[in-house]
UniProtKB/TrEMBL annotation:
It is an enzyme of class 2 (transferase). One of its GO terms (molecular function) is metal ion binding. Its cofactor is Mg(2+). It comes from the Eukaryota. This is 6-phosphofructokinase. Keywords: Acetylation, Allosteric enzyme, ATP-binding, Cytoplasm, Glycolysis, Glycoprotein, Hydroxylation, Kinase, Magnesium, Metal-binding, Nucleotide-binding, Phosphoprotein, Transferase. GO terms for cellular component: 6-phosphofructokinase complex; membrane. GO terms for biological process: canonical glycolysis; fructose 1,6-bisphosphate metabolic process; fructose 6-phosphate metabolic process.
């Protein structure tokens, strides 16, 4: 395992998973310390890895095996030394974690491998020739590598940035200041763009899309307009590589001077720098690193001498394998497009996720409400338990609705408020600052009353857990009796449980997952001095085991009990024995997670008593019920961004449906596709009719009948050293970046094909 150049949080999770899955398959696994320099120098820089050597890695930032730039590796002589060191140890598979430069170097090393070995054999330093397999994982906080939605470390960097933004916001509001925040991103504006979406920034500067000519006047007018609307602060986000159309850099100090000179606003700048790299990795980065590590080992085991070097990537929630050099070439094409002033091409080449973020930002920040109204009412209702990210979705929905010319209405206290007419207009400034607020500003109720058919409202947009899904179904069913309900409706999943059918993710689940993970870290740390201790922790989720499973992966749990994966007394007995054996190693602590409704008889108290009794003399137990702290707190960057995009897309869909269903001066919608759930399925946001999701729903337990994340449970068990079989029937297959980017300009597609053919030759 080889970590190169810069580092990012989450790399250690990838190293841990690579080591443990490699050992699980029976392979020898080596650490290469200090990147390519360690590969060239050899000796103690290349050490055999053991299971216990990665036990404390998961929650650590940076990379414990070191990272370094290496000039020696750029020369053939240096690569010859690296090849010799690998041959001596019989290493024929190399897993490289780094950016595009590091991965390009790895591919060159592989391409030269046969000739390097020929020279070594001639010199008598090697006996026989062999082939070298290489797989890459991308570790970069900038998210600047094309072919993957997220690189390892990006989410953690966003956590640090948003933490700073939230702190700055309170200061700016108190003093009515303008704050300019400069974030990393020399060649890629992902961090700046997502930060702008997540905090509702007034302006963002990114390298891929320089501002239009005359932007200085436009920026000042926008800031002045926001103050005139009653906003007490302005926030501007700048990527460090931001530039104008003339190619000149745009720095935070330049913007500060402009604002102070033209507007006289009290303005401050903050340059975050390397604080974005350090700290504890987020739950997402731990899970991403773990999944990528497992997939990397699978790719190496299945590789042949003819298999091209690949990089393991993330698309939606799917792990995919892509040809390494295709991804590197597309990444270089972005730089070329920017140098040639082809800004739209640069945005498209960054990928669909980046493009969607940019389009959403443009709609929310740079379009003024129209002069003419649509005479359409859109009501927003929060139903069920509150969760972090709901307010971001409401803010986005309200502002996009106003931009479309609609009358936006807020329904307070859920369906009960709708029944009792607790409905008020909501304005553009009425949702200012909502992206960073937890809970539900509109108020919500866990129950609903379907006796509300005196409606003069149009098109409800429902944000909530399973209750809104069920309530939506009842509204659709009641259309036969109440004509007023023949209006378009959309449900946005928003629940910490992540149990809404039709969506792989729900708003709020990521925030809850990070809360659980950070709590588990603290609980485990408390056992650092007190050895031989097992912690049993109960999580929320109803009957859905998403939180327990994903927190188990992120926190390195020894077991996670959930309703969907049935267990009995024999399984509990096996888990106790597993912990007894673990206490004989250097890691003398255990972590058990239990979903709150996984089993009516095997309660948290029962499991605690069982473990306490069976572990007597070997370990003692403690239990923790996390409770409603999982629903609170400020939303994570993911939930803010996800909620913003979901709210925007939902209102745009409602607008199209309203136009489509408008007949003879009225709206009449009674088709199945006029009442949908908006959800993320694999790689895209999709609208699915509520009626069609009936068959996919276990109504008794309020969970979907199938869940994608259940396939990750074997990974958690293998990483905890259980001897189970790993199902590889649905492993990722090699895909092509060119085929994925069908919207790429024709000249670039032709250019790509020619370059790939040359590379293969």
């Amino acid at each position: 395992s080889n970590s190169l150049n810069n580092f990012s949080r989450g790399m250690n999770a990838a190293v841990r998973a690579t080591v443990r899955v490699g050992l699980y398959t029976g392979a020898k696994v080596y650490f290469v310390h200090e990147g390519y320099q360690g590969l060239v120098d050899g000796g103690d820089n290349i050490k055999l890895a053991t299971w216990e050597s990665v036990s404390m890695m998961l929650q650590l930032g940076g990379t414990v095996i070191g990272s370094a730039r290496c000039m020696d590796f750029r020369a053939r002589e240096g690569r010859m030394k690296a090849a010799l060191n690998l041959v001596k140890l019989g290493i024929t598979n190399l897993c490289v974690i780094g950016g595009d430069g590091s991965l390009t170097g790895a591919n060159q090393f592989r391409t030269e491998w046969s000739t390097l070995l020929v020279d070594l054999v001639k010199a008598g330093k090697a006996k026989t020739s062999s082939h070298l397999n290489i797989v890459g994982m991308v570790g970069s906080i900038d998210n600047d590598f094309c072919g993957t939605d997220m690189t390892i470390g990006t989410d953690s960097a966003l956590h640090r940035i948003i933490e700073v933004v939230d702190a700055i916001t309170t200061t700016a509001q108190s003093h009515q200041r303008t704050f300019i925040l400069e974030v990393m991103g020399r060649h890629c504006g992902y961090l700046a763009l997502v930060t702008a979406l997540a905090c509702g920034a007034d302006w963002v500067f990114i390298p891929e899309m320089p501002p239009d000519e005359g932007w200085e006047g436009h920026l000042c007018r926008r800031l002045a307009d926001q103050r005139a609307r009653g906003c007490r602060l302005n926030v501007i986000i700048v990527a460090e590589g931001a530039m104008g159309r003339d190619g000149k850099p745009i720095g935070s100090e330049d913007i500060k001077k402009l604002v102070e000179k033209n507007l006289g606003f009290d303005t401050r700048t903050t340059v975050l720098g390397h604080v974005q790299r350090g700290g504890t990795p987020s739950a997402f980065d731990r899970i991403l690193g773990s999944r990528m590590g497992v997939e990397a080992v699978m790719a190496l085991l299945e590789a042949t001498p003819e298999t091209p070097a690949c990089v393991v990537s993330l698309s939606g929630n799917q792990a995919v394998r892509l040809p390494l050099m295709e991804c590197v070439q597309v990444t270089k094409d972005v730089t070329t497009a920017m140098a040639e002033n082809r800004w739209e091409d640069a945005i498209k080449l960054r990928g669909k996720s980046f493009e969607n973020n940019w389009n959403t930002y443009k709609m929310l920040a740079h379009i003024n409400p129209p002069d003419t109204k649509s005479n359409i009412n859109v009501a927003i209702v929060n139903v069920g338990a509150p969760c972090a990210g709901m307010n971001a979705a409401v803010r986005s929905a309200v502002r996009i609705g106003i931009i479309q010319g609609h009358n936006m209405l807020a329904v307070h206290d859920g369906f009960e408020g709708l029944a009792h007419g607790n409905i008020v207009p909501i304005t553009w400034t009425g949702v200012s600052g909502w992206t960073g607020k937890g809970g539900s500003e509109l108020g919500t109720k866990r129950y609903y009353i379907i006796s509300l058919f005196q409606l003069s409202l149009l098109s409800p947009l429902l944000l909530s857990p399973h209750q809104a899904f069920m309530g939506g179904l009842e509204l659709v069913t009641a259309r036969e009796k109440y004509e007023e309900l023949c209006i378009p409706m959309v449900v946005i999943p928003a629940t910490v449980s992540n149990n809404v059918p039709g969506s792989d993710f729900s708003i709020g689940a990521d925030t809850a997952l990070n809360t659980i993970t950070s709590t588990c870290d603290r609980i485990k740390q408390s056992a650092a001095g007190t050895k031989r201790r097992v912690f049993i922790i109960e999580t929320m989720g109803g009957y859905c085991g998403y939180l327990a499973t994903m927190a188990g992966l992120a926190a390195g749990a020894d077991a996670a009990y959930i309703y969907e994966d049935k267990f009995g007394i024999r399984d509990l007995e096996m888990n106790v024995e597993h912990l007894v054996q673990k206490m004989k190693t250097d890691v003398k602590r255990g972590l058990i997670l239990r979903n709150e409704k996984c089993n009516a008889n095997y309660t948290t108290d029962f499991i605690f008593a069982l473990y306490s009794e069976e572990g007597k003399g070997v370990f003692d137990c403690r239990k923790n019920i996390l409770g409603h702290m999982q629903q609170g707190g400020t939303p994570t960057p993911f939930d803010r961004n996800f909620g913003t995009k979901m709210g925007s897309k939902a209102v745009l869909w409602l607008t199209e449906k309203l136009k489509e269903m408008y007949r003879h001066g009225r709206i009449f919608a009674n088709t199945p596709d006029s009442a949908c759930v908006l959800g993320m399925r694999k790689r895209a946001l999709t609208f699915q009719p509520l009626a069609e999701l009936n068959e996919q729903t276990d109504f008794e337990h309020r969970i979907p009948k199938t869940s994608w994340w259940l396939k990750l449970r074997p990974i958690m068990k293998i990483l905890a050293k259980y001897n189970i079989s790993l199902d590889t029937s649905e492993h990722a297959h090699m895909e092509h970046v060119i085929k994925k980017r069908v919207s790429m300009p024709a000249p670039l597609i032709k250019k790509h094909k020619e370059e790939v053919e040359e590379e293969e030759e």
